Every structure is written in structure tokens, then in C-alpha cells.
Amino acid sequence: MRAEAGDAAILGGSYGWSSAGRFHHARSQLHRFLGLGGGFTAQVTNYSYGAGMTLMPHVLGTNDVLQGPVTDWDGIARHARLMLCFGGLPLKNGLVTAGGAGSHDYAPQMRRAAEAGVRFVNISPFRGDCAEFLGAEWVPIRPNSDAALVLAMLHALVTEGLEDRDFLARCTVGWERLRAYVLGEADGVAKSPDWAAPLCEVPAETIRRLAREAAGAPTMITATWSLQRAEHGEQPWWALVALASALGGIGEPGQGIGFGYGSMNGMGTPRRRLPSVNLPATRNPGPSIPVSRVVELLERPGEVLSYNGRDITLPEIRMIWWAGGNPFHHHQDLNRFRRAWNRVETVIVQEPWWTAPARMADIVLPATTTLERNDIGSSSSDRFVRAMHRAVPPQGQARNDHDMLADMAEELGFRERFTQGRDEEAWLRHLYGQWQRSCAHFGVAVPDFDRFWAEGHAEIPPPNEGFTIFDGFARDPAANPLNTPSGKVELFSETIARFNYGEIPGHPVWREPREWLGAPLAERFPLHLLSYQPATRLHGQMDDGRVSLASKIQGREPMLMHPADAAARGLADGSVVRVFNTRGALLAGLRLSAEIRPGVVALATGAWWDPQEIGGETLCVHGNANVLTQDVGTSRLGQGCAAQSCLVQVEAWTGALPEIRVHSPPPVLEAAE
Fold it and tell me: Molybdopterin oxidoreductase domain location, by residue (predicted)?
């Protein structure tokens, strides 16, 4: 393949958590193998916050504000009196973190903040996005309208003279241009609460009150990662940075802004700036694309993709090599994705399970699970490093990803460079030793490998002091500049403006999505579908396990709907419904709840895709939400996933219930001797 089509013809897939183990992390192993072999087409950014991680370096000079460390919860409890939570603080999300969680801090930290007197406001279409013990005020905003609400809050601050002019003058650039836009001086449209109210379906007086309360008390602003997974998803996050700047709390203890408090365990937990245990990467001389644009890569060879000021010529992909992740879980518009996937000449998949990519592969290499190998679990957002002892020997013909790739590297002439002469135990000792030396460099002592392996974990002591992001910058911007062109918070970015992307000019703006309840398309598809992280599994992992299966309704993934929307359609709680739009259709089990605002339905991601041809259409009989979501980029800047801009219709399913097949192995044909 390399000789015929070049290195870029190989898409080095694998996106997904796959394992908390750092050595047997399938993506790292595969990329190491393909990189040493000459290179491959790789993927950058992620599905979780791809738009935000492209935007924030332009605006704040760092992605720490969305990846951590962010201002810790202890500081919020001591100093904040108000926390505005755009997208809420979903309790279930705090159960997980990449690399595994040894310390589940999220719920206790939130509870302490509430007990200390912090008032929470849940700005979300779903009341359940904040735990009941927070006693949060619920502002049931219309999905995808957050940027309009935030701009209107800025308008209220300015017109009532409540903005922090000192902070704006010392620590930001571009405020006057943004202010002119907010007041309507730039385009003749004042972004007032009265303007925003019909867009957000939040009363104008509520918007004014929130602005006044935020200006009158120490306030922390947060937004979940999901908020930017929408058309123009960069806009609400940029607008929230502007709001935090206008309030003047950035860099103050317990105040300012931090993204992701409600997205993963460890956000806001005091931690030392130490590296985690990781397999070293190898250089890849091949091209890279934003990860969520993989279908465009497969569909449009030779065409140009604009991304973050660059034009990327898309190579022709002739081979996909995937390991340790399920793109038919996390990608959008799965029917389109399958058509693009099937264009490729050869697909190789390394998998323990009969997931969708394994079912559609030309070659399947059976890989071990976490229970069949030794490894080290580590996360930069957790204070424990864990020894992951093998529980059972490899089953059947399963092999470790490293071992099978090492044998292939031998056939290709670079085994020694791939393995560096180490087996599994030697690699674990080597990686742990590197981490131990890094800890020592920062004055942190951890046990040697033998003691760590025997005791089962190593604990990193917490820092002696609390952490406030951007505190040095706020005290003295000249001495502690941000890593932006101006050294300040860029409320107007000359860099972004020079890209000349009409959908995202040099400052935050309101842009209507193509799919939201204010669009003409809503007449045909009048329900906004939100696809959220499940509470009964990790993404798509263990969907066939007892906990996930027990949550199903008649074998289908549950979907939340307001009782008024169900009554208008003659639908009953516990029934099976057909959910559809122009991209596809699925079956879901209906769960009625007044916790979700009318006009919105919510379906967890992670139900294994089970497409069957029924009634002349391809129907996912199990309820994978990504059959319905649209596969478009957030903008040419971030090119992130825009799954949360999705309109659907729902009707009763009156046919026989199809069998769920995806949790059973596919038929296997024995080769003739």
C-alpha cells in the first residue's frame, strides 16, 4: 500500500478511550507502529471539545481553561457566591476520567460548595443537568441559543454601568469593538435582553437579573464541553470569556471562568502539575485533519478543507487501520459514515468485541481486554497511579495490541525500533521509572516500581496551596502575559479576523444554526434532539453489560420527552417510538419527564448501532443517537463536532419489534479446507 499510494493513503484511526492502561493504550500503540513504518494520515483535536480547543489558544493563550488545571473547588467554596452553569454540572459525568479515576472527588466538592453558600444556576434545557442537592435555579434555555443570552447579559452590564472597566482596560484587547457590536453600534441591532428573549425563550427580565446578580457577587462561570458541540459552537464559549472579563473575576480566587467542571472527574480538584504515565509518541511525517472531519476526508480526496487558518488538501485514503475505539459510536450521521467507510479498499480492525467497525472490516485482529494484560492506569487529573494486574490469561486467539504490532514490525524490518528490546514487564518498568524521575524533578517522592506493583497504587500528595487559573496574569498582565499575540484576553482577535471566515469574525457574535428550533426546518422536524453522555456505561463500552441492559425500554435506548410533547403525539411512557429526520431513523424507548423543556428530546449516546432494513429504510432498531445527528463542522475555525444541532420528529412505532442483534456475534463462516 505504501509503495503504491504513499504513506498518506493509510488512515491511522483509533479514537476512543479503549483502556485506562497507558502502555496497552491501543491508539498509542497503533500510531507508534504506523509512524515508525513511514507515516500515516492522522487526526488532531477531539470530539469532546474540538471547537473550544482550537479557539481558546487564540483568546486565552492556553487550553488549560478547558482541560485543567482550572480554579479548584475549594476556592469556589470559599470565595464564590454564585456559579453560572451553562449546560449544568451533570453528576454522572464526574464518575469518569480518561486514564481512570482513583479518587471520585466531583460530587463531594460540589456538595461542599453548596453547603458553603454558593448559589448555582443551571442554564440548560434539562433540569437534571444539576444534582438536586445543589438546589440550583433552573433556566430552561432553548438549545443552541446560549451565545444570544450571554451577549444580552453583556448588554445589560454595559447599559447599567456594571462592567469592570479597570479589568477590561488592563487585561483585554478588543473590548470597544465587541461593545459596539453588543450595543448595536456596529450593525444596528442592539443585543439587548429584549432582543435575546424570543431567541432563548428566557424572559428578558431573567436575563437582566442574572447579569445584575453576577455583577453584584463573586461569580464563577462554567460551561460543559457539550455546549460547543453545535453549529457555531465557538461563539458561546468566546462570549462567556467576554462575560467573565466584563465581570472582572478572571484570576480572582473562586471566580472567573473554567470550562468542563461538569464534564469529567478531576476538573477543579487540586493537583500538582505532573505528567502522567504515557507511552512515548513517535514523529508522524504524514498529514493531519480535525478528527470529526473524517467523512469529508474519505469522500473528497484531492479537495481542500479549511481549518484554523490553513487549507488542507485531503489525501486519498485507501486503507483504514483502526484499534481500540468505535467510530460508529462517536461519529455523526452514521448512514453517511458507513457509505464513506465502504469506499476504502482495505479496513483492518484490532478489537476484542464485535463492534460495528469490526463487523465492517476486511481483517479483524482479536485483541485482549484490560483484564487479560498487565498495565498502569494514570491520568493527569487524578492523584493515583494504579497497577492494573492481569486477571485472566488471554482468551482464545486474542493477543495484546503491542505483541501483534511487534510481530508485524518484524516482518517490515523495524521490530527493534518499535519494541526497543522490551517486553511488557520491561516497558511497564521503563514507563513507571520515567514518571518516577519526573516526579522527583518536581520534588515529589513516589515508591519504586516493585513496591508500587505490590501495593497496587502510588499516590501523589495534593499541593500545599489552592489554585486559581490566571491569577498571576490578573495581578500584573505585563509581567505575566498570556500566550496570545497581545499578551491579553483577546475579545477581538486580529488573527481570527484575518482568516476571513464569515461565520466567525474577530469577536463573539450571534449566528443562527441551520438546525435549531428557530429554523424553518423546525416546521417539519419540531423537536430538538440532545445527545448526551450515558449514566449506565462509559461512552459505548459495556453497552451489552447488565447495568446498561437494565436501563433499556423493551430493549431500546431510553429517550426523554416532555409529557406535553408526548400527549400531542398520543405517545405513552414506556412505549417504543420511531425517531427520524432526513439522515435516518431509529427506535427508542420513551421515558416521560417534566425535567426536560418542551420541544426538546434527549437520547444518550453509546447504544451499539444495529442497522436493519425494515419498511424500505435503514432503521437502527436499538437507538444509536448518531444515526440522526448532522455531520458538519462547527465552523471553518474549529471544525469541531456539531452533534447538538439536530432536529427530529417522533411518532409511535406500530410494527413488530425487531430483534436486537448487535449484542450477539455475527454469523461466522468456516473456511473450506
Answer: 6-410
| Amino acid code (one letter) for 449 | F
Q: Are residues 437 and 582 in the same domain?
A: no
User: Is 358 inside a domain boundary?
Assistant: yes
Q: What is the pTM of this model?
A: 0.97
Catalytic pick among 15, 49, 237, 532: 15
Burial class from Cβ neighbours inside 10 Å (0-12, 13-18, 19+) for residue 145 reads buried
What total of structural domains would you count in the chain?
Answer: 4
For residue 571, the domain's CATH number is 2.40.40.20
CA-CA distance, 609 to 624, in Å (whole number)? 5
Residue 673 has pLDDT above 60, yes or no: no
Query: Considering the domain boundaries, does residue 121 fall inside one?
Result: yes
* Residue 164 and residue 311 share a domain: no
Q: Which of 17, 49, 73, 261 is catalytic?
A: 17
Residues 40-78: tens digit of each pLDDT = 999 999 999 999 999 999 999 999 999 989 999 999 999
Q: How confident is the model at residue 97 (pLDDT cuts 50, 70, 90)?
A: confident
Q: State how far the Cα of 259 lies from the Cα of 85, in Å rounded to an integer.
A: 10
Assess whether 427 carries a catalytic annotation. no
What are the C-alpha distances in Å from 601 to residues 299, 371, 523, 534, 561? 31, 37, 16, 15, 5
Whole-number Å distance between alpha carbons of 386 and 246:
43
**Mean pLDDT throughout 210-219?**
99
Confidence at residue 560, expressed as pLDDT on a 0 to 100 scale: 99
Whether residue 243 is contained in a domain is answered as yes
Give catalytic status of residue 501 as yes or no.
no
Is the pLDDT reported for residue 505 higher than 80? yes
Query: Residue 590: which domain range?
Result: 520-652
Please state, as a whole number, how many other Cβ atoms lie within 10 Å of the Cβ of residue 218: 20
- Average pLDDT over the chain, rounded to an integer: 96
Q: 615 and 565 share a domain?
A: yes
Grid cell, residue 587, equals 427506535
pLDDT higher than 60, residue 256: yes
Shared-domain flag, residues 369 and 483: no
Chain-centre distance for alpha carbon 185: 36
